């Protein structure tokens, strides 16, 4: 298994959730961001990129074995948080770039993505896909890190993957965790109701 570092994006303003910060809402008894970090920590060293409510996110991750990086430019968009994470993540053979609001992800989902990445072309960026829908996280080989940072006006994955389709590969991974994030009160209510139904 290659050395893996995970960059978890947790700098957004959570506007669609209303007055509450979605990353601090409880999932399985802990704040969502902590739940997600705990999942990633089972397969990778974790860096969390914060911005909005950075102190609150840090408090939610108190005593977690993670590194924090504050993105001073988070108001300029998610791509700046990706760039911040890429610069701060340290050396690793593979970088997982994921979102802090995907509580359905499991360690096995992440292992499946890493296995698919290793079995295909580990020199390309790996993206989960179900039908026409792309998922998160994505797996980025370390040699491509510099390319994602090369354009100062559009750093990160979106422009790079669009401009370099030959460096991208998609994997048919069906797990819902790759495609489900919690952005709105209705989405959170549906998630908690489903969790209660499944509880023993």
Reconstruct the topology from this structure.
Elements: E1 4-10, E2 26-27, E3 30-31, H1 32-40, E4 45-50, H2 54-60, E5 67-70, H3 78-88, E6 94-99, H4 107-119, E7 125-130, E8 133-134, E9 138-141, H5 145-149, H6 157-163, E10 168-172, H7 185-198
Parallel strand pairs: 1-4, 1-6, 4-5, 7-10
Antiparallel strand pairs: 2-3, 6-9, 7-8
Order of helices and strands: EEEHEHEHEHEEEHHEH
Largest beta-sheet details = 5 strands, mixed
Overall mean confidence score, pLDDT: 92
Question: What is the beta-strand fraction?
Answer: 15-25%
What is the total number of structural domains? Answer: 1
Please report the number of helical segments.
7
CATH domain fold name: Spore Coat Polysaccharide Biosynthesis Protein SpsA, Chain A
CATH superfamily: Spore Coat Polysaccharide Biosynthesis Protein SpsA, Chain A
Total strand segments: 10
Radius of gyration from CA coordinates: 16 Å
Residues in helices, as a percent range: 25-40%
**Which residues sit in consecutive blocks of at least 5 with pLDDT less than 50?**
none
Top CATH class: Alpha Beta
- SS content category: alpha/beta
- Characterize the overall form: globular
Architecture, CATH level 2?
Alpha-Beta Complex
Terminal Cα separation, in Å?
Answer: 34 Å
What order do the strands of the largest sheet run in, or round the barrel if closed? 5-4-1-6-9
